[in-house]
Amino acid sequence: MALKTKDGELKGDIAFYCRVLHVSRQGFYQYLANKGCPWKYQPLADAMKEILTEDECNDTYGRIRM
Q1: Number of domains within the chain
Q2: What is the pTM of this model?
Q3: Of 18, 33, 40, 58, whose CB count within 10 A is highest?
């Protein structure tokens, strides 16, 4: 199993775990690189949640109507 050490480094056979989880090594390392970045659609998701909470009748809106 891949574990993080105290200094934040990963140890273990990353290639094995990527095969088991059907994930490419490139995808795994790309995920690690982007893990701390904010989601690019977060402002849109926040606006959609705000629209839903404005009125109790707004719960019938789907993503297209919003």
Answers
A1: 2
A2: 0.46
A3: 18
**Pair 41, 66 in one domain:** yes
Sign of CA dihedral 27, 21, 32, 47: positive
DSSP-assigned letters across all residues of 1-66: --EE-TTS-EES-HHHHHHHTT--HHHHHHHHHHTTSPPTTHHHHHHHHHHHHH-GGGGG--TTT-
* 30 plus 52 within the same structural domain: no
- The whole domain housing 62 covers 37-66
Q: Which pLDDT belongs to residue 22?
A: 93
26 and 44 assigned to the same domain: no
